[in-house]
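>> received
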Amino acid sequence: MQKLLFNHRNKFQLLIASIGIIIGLILLLISLELYHKGKFYNESSKILDEHTLIVQKKVSRAAHLGLGSPGFSAAEIDELQKQKFISACSPIMSNQFEVIVEINDPIIPAFNSNIFLQAIENDLIDISSNEFKWEDSNDYVPVIMPRNFLMMLNTFLSASKLPQLSESLISNVQMNLTLGPKSKRSVVPARIVGFTNDFSSILVPSAFLKMANLKFANTKDEFQSQLVIKAVDNKLGLLESYLEDKGYESGEDQIFISRLKSTIFITLICTTSLALLTLFLSVVITIQYLQMMLSELTFEIRLMLRLGHSIQALKNIFLRFFMLVFSANSLISFVCFYFLNVAINNRLIRSGIIINESISLWSISALFIAFIIFTILVNFFTVRRIKSQFHS
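>> returned
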């Protein structure tokens, strides 16, 4: 029966449809994979969302003459908080006393350096409150280290011909914070609970820094040179324009990453749309090829039905054939996608962009969804056509 139905058929149209399916699936898989990598890139080290900026005043020539203040006054902060496109605005607290970090652990050489502490309210950062909280009864202070610190430390270890440290390893390193002037210093154990690319200083819980400033600072006046500002959704552009008009500035890398992600996502949406359109047209061509086959086999279908073959049995023959064709196309697409994904990952890693190299479940699921939709369509049109042949 297979030879009767499928041999000596012109398969050029089916070949064109198969090529379209392969190209469409490759584009779809690559788009989904890059979207997944782009969406979650740097998420583990970002504690500010894409609508939140660190803002400070621009340094002008007047500052060198002692004119103007680089800090934000209470009136300026209040004005920012009243803007309709700003959902939250909070000062970044800084240490007003001397702080020295000391690392004394067997796995690395002894290390100590003066550092700068900062803190912001927990509702503006994306980190577990259970990990990043402090009370007087705590045995240690949780800290979030800038990723640059780890890179600097690994550079030092590499120059000393010592093994470098991973994030998980350095999180277990014994570390102390020495607080205050020499006359009344206090040593507090600390533990690293995360890393960030958003800040260049060490972050500590706001409750701890408030206590330390009251205890060790020589002055009670708070100098607020930086703010954390969160824009209302879809109004980041208005915030950027407002900051420019007021003479404020934010980290260019934050805005750059936000714009880069937006551009990439728009490009991937266009690519995904092209992939879906290619798949749709290829499936339509495949269905047309199926309809043409069934039209050419009118005599054979009627004969087999009269000989006792059921519509279900005939339908299963055609369905099995096209399922095998689609499965072969899917396998070819996945193999091509796998090698393209490896090449893209290697290229990104060589450029210094560290990403998750594993294939996401979304890409695998897309193949199964496409297979199920294709099977349903072939099953529907085959049964419909055979029934029309039988009743005609």
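>> Residues 40 and 355 are 9 Å apart (CA to CA).
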